[in-house]
């Protein structure tokens, strides 16, 4: 009986913690709203603008995407192959839709991403990039750069995707 009375007198841990948790949850829920209001009203906040907007992936037919991406990778492979004929310090390999180019700067990897309808490039110099087809070229939605400009700047090869047989 004495033991039973002590249990009723001692507060339960949840009754002590619940008010603290409630305050934390309410604060955490309202904090993003407060921050977004400050950011959107800031005179320094400006939406990013890009020179070209790639076609939304849902508008590009998946079969057309595969055709464009495959032919683009073939064009890139041809450009890399020509470079390997002139230089001994580079190598290129194209297997299962993955183009690997070994250069003194490091290894470049270019591959298709069918789910996103993109081509991804991993550069040892500038890092990973994702490119969308804009009707004429592969363009980064993040910074508006073109894949051919990056390859010309970092490796020194020139490619043109005008040879695509669409």
TrEMBL record:
It comes from the Eukaryota. Gene3D superfamilies: Frataxin/CyaY. One of its GO terms (molecular function) is ferroxidase activity. Pfam families: Frataxin_Cyay. Its EC number is 1.16.3.1. One of its GO terms (cellular component) is mitochondrion. It is found in: Mitochondrion. Keywords: Ion transport, Iron, Iron storage, Iron transport, Mitochondrion, Oxidoreductase, Transit peptide, Transport. It is an enzyme of class 1 (oxidoreductase). The keyword Iron applies. One of its GO terms (biological process) is iron ion transport. InterPro entries: Frataxin, Frataxin/CyaY, Frataxin/CyaY_sf. It catalyses: 4 Fe(2+) + O2 + 4 H(+) = 4 Fe(3+) + 2 H2O. Belongs to the frataxin family. This is ferroxidase. It comes from Choiromyces venosus 120613-1.
């Amino acid at each position: 009986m004495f033991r039973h009375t002590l249990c009723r007198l001692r507060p339960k841990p949840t009754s002590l913690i619940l008010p603290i948790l409630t305050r934390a949850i309410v604060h955490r829920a309202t904090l993003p709203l407060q921050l977004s209001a400050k950011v959107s009203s800031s005179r320094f906040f400006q939406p990013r603008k890009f020179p070209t907007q790639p076609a939304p992936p849902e508008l590009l037919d998946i079969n057309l995407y595969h055709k464009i991406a495959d032919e683009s990778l073939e064009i890139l492979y041809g450009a890399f192959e020509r470079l390997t004929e002139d230089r001994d310090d580079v190598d290129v390999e194209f297997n299962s839709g993955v183009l690997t180019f070994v250069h003194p700067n490091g290894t470049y990897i270019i591959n298709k991403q069918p789910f996103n309808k993109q081509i991804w490039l991993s550069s040892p110099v500038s890092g990973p990039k994702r490119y969308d087809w804009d009707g004429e070229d592969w363009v980064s939605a993040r910074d508006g750069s073109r894949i051919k400009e990056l390859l010309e700047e970092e490796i020194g090869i020139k490619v043109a995707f005008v040879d695509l047989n669409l």
